[in-house]
């Protein structure tokens, strides 16, 4: 299924008609440059174009009052003076004779997108709209917003499609207070927002935008605020919050639909956000949400005021929605001190509501009053930091790298008597291995692994790896008689020259991995049921689950809170996913894991499985081909020992792996 794109140039036909410093950045060009970038890059042709429509009165009244709607209805007939007068009652927003029409189109576009996704016409999609929506409230326009497009879409999805749980992710740099107010007592809508806050010194300067606004009454726990108390936040900060706050809760919530308040003023270069995250971060934020709700994701444009980073960020988002390989994120050096504090506060505030946050530790007690002093010291610390280290003025950043689709998506190396799963391309050609390598293989393993056809398997395996590294193939599946033996071989020989860094994810355990590099060419993360007395080097990380890999709650918690942050920091060129026989991993979890691992190494994942587990080749192939993984249904509370062990593991490793930091 495809990706919907909603855009209508009518929504460019309103603008600010008088002088107002607060509103001058909200210009029609925002939509024009975004759409033109999609056209120029060829991305718009790859999307399914869905027409915009006007939201009806009843749809708008799902969120707004009749009083407000009737008032806005009058604006098309107002004189310039009346419009100015009418505008005065609201904050940081302006009206125009055509803005009511455009606001109905913006909300209607969001509803068209929901229809397209919920009826299965498309898998996901994006609506390029203006005016934005997340600041508008029951009876008030605010922050360039007239109708709350995403809030209306959430209510509409529940009413028309019986959606039980909606996740709204607001990655715009402003707090969507309008969305928070709309759903704060509603446990069926989980609202997550990060936003520039600076201890309430940034617009809209609301006390209720802080991390301790967790929702009210039955909605307690279903409102998550992550305040940014400094500017200059980078990719590491955003990914840390996704891995350690949003994703654990999102998986536990298990939404039927994901709506994104896709504001791009959180990108570098934006005059509002003054952050330093690069446009390619949105490729990863989108990717990390795409395995939820069976892939049903609707992104609706909110803010974004730097026309260059806005256009690039929109393209990055759409390219991921289309399933293209992700760009590698370089030198993630972990969250800054202020970000760690914010994420620790958010985790702590929600510990009592979410079993996946149960082991969050409390932040050191500094009462609110001292915060502004602290932030002043932080400010000083930042200015002391070398000028070139901080984001330079004038905000220059590299164009996001091209994300080329390999000619072949998924290849397989199988014994001749095993049928190739649909969609995979069987690799039968293989270059002859150097005799030296063959003899090395032979004398290293006398087992069946490398008898006659074993060598053929190896030569095909090496050919496959070469093609992955050359980006001729995106990912692959290899079936072998003896997984452990082959893994050792691959790991030892792989790191020679083909790839710089290999992330080995070992699911289940058959025996000690007696081969661990210390030079960092291989990072092994092993998830299994047994604790390993193995000396732990920085590059061999055993995760022990009390009930083993069949415990999906413990497994996903380890993946989100440990494997993902590690993988982002390590930034491998190849991922080797090894399924040990008898691991017991549940199929949906296995598919989720394959989906999430696509975020690394441009999607170059090599899955190694034992021939006698060929029954799960079908689901493996489906995940490798990019089909959304099935949701992880009714996750139990993770075992306390596991949650505790994971927290201790992170604390012990965070000195070496900064992306594991969750405590300041
Ligand atoms: N320096 C201009 C102040 C603008 N304040 C309102 C911002 C609304 C953003 C909507 S995403
Ligand atoms: Zn914004």
From TrEMBL:
One Pfam entry name: Hist_deacetyl
Domain Histone deacetylase: 26-320
UniProt source species: Ataeniobius toweri
InterPro entries: HDACs, His_deacetylse_dom, His_deacetylse_dom_sf, Ureohydrolase_dom_sf
Protein's name according to its UniProt entry: Histone deacetylase domain-containing protein
């Amino acid at each position: 299924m495809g990706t919907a794109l909603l855009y209508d140039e009518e929504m460019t036909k309103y603008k600010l008609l008088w002088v107002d410093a607060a509103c001058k950045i909200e210009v029609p060009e925002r939509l024009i440059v975004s759409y033109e970038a999609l056209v120029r890059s060829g991305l718009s042709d790859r999307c399914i174009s869905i027409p915009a429509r006007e939201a009806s009165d009843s749809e708008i009244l799902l969120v707004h009052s009749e009083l407000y709607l009737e008032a806005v209805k009058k604006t098309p007939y107002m004189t310039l003076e009346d419009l100015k007068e009418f505008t005065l009652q609201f904050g940081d927003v302006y009206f125009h004779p055509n803005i009511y029409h455009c606001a109905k189109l913006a909300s209607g576009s969001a509803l068209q997108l929901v229809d397209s996704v919920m009826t299965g016409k498309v898998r996901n999609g994006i609506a390029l709209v203006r005016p934005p929506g997340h600041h508008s409230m029951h009876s008030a326009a605010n922050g360039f917003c007239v109708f709350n497009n995403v809030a209306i879409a959430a209510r509409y999805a529940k009413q028309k499609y019986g959606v039980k749980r909606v996740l709204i992710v607001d990655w715009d740099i402003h707090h969507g207070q309008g969305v928070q107010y709309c759903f704060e007592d509603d446990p069926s809508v989980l609202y997550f927002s990060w936003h520039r806050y600076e201890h309430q010194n940034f617009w809209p300067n609301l006390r209720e935008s802080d991390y301790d606004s967790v929702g009210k009454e039955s909605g307690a726990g279903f409102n998550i605020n992550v305040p940014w108390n400094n500017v200059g936040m980078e990719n590491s900060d955003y990914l840390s919050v996704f891995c350690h706050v949003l994703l654990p809760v999102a998986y536990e919530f298990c939404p039927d639909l994901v709506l994104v308040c896709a504001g791009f003023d959180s990108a570098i270069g934006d005059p509002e956000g003054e952050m330093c995250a690069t446009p390619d971060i949105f490729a990863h934020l989108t990717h990390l949400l795409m395995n939820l709700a069976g892939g049903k994701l609707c992104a609706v444009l909110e803010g974004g005021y730097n026309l260059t980073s806005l256009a690039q960020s929109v393209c990055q988002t759409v390219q991921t929605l289309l399933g293209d390989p992700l760009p590698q994120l370089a030198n993630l050096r972990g969250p800054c001190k202020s970000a760690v504090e914010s994420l620790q506060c958010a985790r702590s505030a929600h510990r009592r509501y979410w079993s996946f946050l149960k082991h969050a530790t409390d932040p050191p007690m500094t009462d609110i009053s001292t915060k502004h002093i602290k932030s002043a010291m932080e400010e000083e610390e930042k200015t002391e930091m070398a000028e070139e280290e901080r984001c330079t003025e004038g905000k220059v950043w590299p164009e996001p790298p091209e994300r080329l689709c390999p000619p072949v998506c998924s290849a397989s190396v199988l014994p001749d008597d095993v049928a190739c799963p649909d969609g995979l391309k069987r690799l039968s050609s293989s270059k002859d291995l150097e005799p030296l390598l063959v003899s090395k293989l032979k004398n290293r393993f006398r087992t069946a692994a490398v008898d006659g056809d074993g060598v053929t398997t190896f030569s095909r395996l090496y050919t496959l790896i070469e093609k992955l590294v050359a980006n001729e193939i995106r990912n692959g599946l290899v079936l072998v008689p003896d997984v452990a033996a082959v893994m050792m071989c691959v790991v030892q020989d792989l790191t020679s020259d083909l790839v710089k860094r290999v992330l080995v994810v070992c699911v289940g355990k058959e025996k000690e991995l007696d081969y661990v590099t210390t030079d960092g060419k291989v990072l092994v993360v092993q998830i299994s049921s047994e604790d390993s007395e193995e000396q732990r080097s920085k590059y061999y990380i055993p995760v022990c689950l009390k009930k083993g890999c069949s415990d999906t709650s413990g497994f996903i918690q380890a993946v989100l809170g440990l494997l993902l942050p590690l993988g982002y920091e390590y930034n491998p060129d190849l991922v080797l996913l090894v399924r040990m026989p008898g691991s017991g991993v549940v199929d949906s979890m296995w598919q989720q894991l394959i989906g999430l691992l696509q975020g690394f190494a441009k999607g170059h994942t090599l899955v190694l499985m034992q021939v006698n587990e060929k029954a799960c080749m079908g689901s493996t192939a489906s995940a490798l081909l990019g089909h959304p993984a099935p949701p992880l249904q009714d996750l139990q509370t993770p075992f306390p020992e596991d949650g505790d062990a994971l927290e201790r593991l992170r604390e012990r490793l965070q000195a070496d792996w900064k992306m594991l930091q969750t405590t300041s």
